[in-house]
C-alpha cells in the first residue's frame, strides 16, 4: 500500500505540470489571436476613417455645387445674367459687335510642358558638369 501511494505522488505532478503547460500554451495562443484580430480591426478602422474623410470632402464639394446651382436658378430670371451667359457660353453678340474667341489646344500645352522639363534636366546636367570642371 505504501508503494502505491508513492507511485501516485510521482505521476500526478507530471500530469499536473503537463496540463498547466497546455493551459499556458492555450492562453498564449488566445492572446496572440486577440492581438492579430485587434490589428486587423485597427487597420479596417483607419481605412474607414479615410473613407469618411473623403466622403465628407465630397459632401462639401456637392454642397458648394448645390449653392452655385441655386444661385444660377435665382439669377436665371435676371436679364443681365441671361445676357452674360448668352455672350460667354453661346458666343452670341449684340448688333454691331464682333466676337473674338481664343482657342488653345491641349496638345500644344502638353508639348510645351515636356520641353520645359527637358530644358530643366539638360540645364541641371550642364550645371553639374560645370561644377565638376571647376572643382577638378
Structural class: mainly alpha
- What is the count of β-strands? 0
The tally of domains stands at 2
Helix residue percentage = over 70%
Low-confidence stretches: none
Distance between the termini: 100 Å
Strand share of the residues?
under 5%
Write the H/E string, N to C: HHH
Cα Rg: 39 Å
Shape, per Cα inertia axes? flat
| Largest β sheet strand count, sense and barrel closure | none
* Whole-number mean pLDDT: 80
State the helix count: 3
In short:
The protein is mainly alpha-helical and 136 residues long. Helix content is 84%, strand content 0%.
Please tell me about this protein's structure.
With 136 residues, the chain is mostly helical. The chain has two domains: 1-91; 100-136. The chain is 84% helix and 0% strand. The protein contains three helices and no strands. The longest helix has 74 residues, at 2-75. It is flat, with a radius of gyration of 39 Å.
Amino acid at each position: 500500500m505504501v508503494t502505491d501511494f508513492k507511485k501516485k505522488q510521482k505521476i500526478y505532478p507530471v500530469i499536473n505540470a503537463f496540463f498547466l503547460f497546455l493551459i499556458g500554451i492555450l492562453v498564449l495562443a488566445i492572446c496572440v489571436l486577440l492581438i492579430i484580430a485587434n490589428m486587423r480591426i485597427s487597420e479596417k478602422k483607419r481605412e474607414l476613417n479615410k473613407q469618411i474623410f473623403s466622403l465628407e470632402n465630397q459632401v462639401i464639394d456637392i454642397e458648394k455645387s448645390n449653392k452655385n446651382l441655386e444661385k444660377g436658378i435665382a439669377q436665371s430670371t435676371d436679364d443681365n445674367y441671361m445676357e452674360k451667359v448668352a455672350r460667354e457660353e453661346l458666343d452670341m453678340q449684340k448688333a454691331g459687335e464682333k466676337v473674338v474667341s481664343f482657342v488653345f489646344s491641349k496638345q500644344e500645352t502638353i508639348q510645351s510642358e515636356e520641353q520645359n522639363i527637358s530644358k530643366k534636366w539638360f540645364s541641371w546636367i550642364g550645371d553639374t558638369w560645370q561644377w565638376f570642371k571647376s572643382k577638378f
